[in-house]
Amino acid sequence: MSNRNAEAVNEWIALAVQDAILSSGRTKRSLSDETGIPYPTLNRKLAAKTEFSFRELLLIAEALGVSPATFTPPAFTR
After folding, report:
1. What pLDDT does 47 receive?
2. Is 10 exposed, middle or buried (0-12, 13-18, 19+ CB in 10 A)?
3. Average pLDDT over the chain, rounded to whole?
4. pTM metric for this prediction
């Protein structure tokens, strides 16, 4: 995967997490508190400046009550 493609995937995942947060009615602060992901780190990841780890995505999915597959780009679901 090229660096550009990796960045696009990272941006897609960040947007998917943002959408899930909005849909849940939760705040980023409450998600940070529940998952243990520091608030500044969560904000950096939501801005796609750094990547979410698989563990973080699992914690977020659990906290928001969604499937971890919610954060899987369509190109990876084949």
Report:
1. 97
2. middle
3. 93
4. 0.91
Are 65 and 24 in contact by the 8 Å Cβ rule? The answer is: yes
Give me the residue label for tokens 């190109």: 75
Pairwise pLDDT comparison (48 vs 2), residue with the higher score: 48
Q: What is the largest CA-CA distance in the chain?
A: 35
Six token digits for residue 18 = 């943002």
Q: DSSP states of 4-70 as a string?
A: HHHHHHHHHHHHHHHHHHHHHT--HHHHHHHH---HHHHHHHHTTSSPPPHHHHHHHHHHHT--GGG
> Is the pLDDT reported for residue 78 higher than 70?
no
**Listed residue (24, 25, 42, 45) closest to 33, CA to CA:** 42
